[in-house]
Amino acid sequence: MTTSSTAPRETARKAATKSAAKTTRTSVDAAKLSEQLRVKDDESPWSEEEITEVRGVLLDEIEQHRVELKLAEDELDDLLRATGDGAGDDQADAGAKTAEREHEISVAANARASLRQAEHALEQLEAGIYGICENCGNPIGKLRLQARPRATLCMTCQEKQDRH
To answer: Domains, the chain, ranges and CATH?
Structure first.
């Protein structure tokens, strides 16, 4: 096995270890966070249970996206090895192989982006700045975050971004 193929595994192992360490936080951490995290004026403060639930959802998403990314990268690697030079392929075969490769590249890119978003949200939670819109600085809202824990924009800013 080459060093380049073991490097991603080592990175993933270190990230998993770091992630596991974060799951061992005590309820004291959740209590501190419940006092720190901002909410909209018409919302109740984050409870320790809500924080624990969001943290668990984010950790589950991170693990799921890591698995998806690993599968997509393995599939892409297999496709690239099997492709060879394409000699003897007719146009339909070559087109199908290209489409399959592009699909796997897209799947891997989406899994990578989702993984980054979930890790970013968890980092924000641990830093006590979770739930603040990265555009306007206002609270995103607990309901939105409970529905979409990786959200980084409030609904107003998200709608503006979607229109552009």
So the answer is: 3-129 (1.20.120)
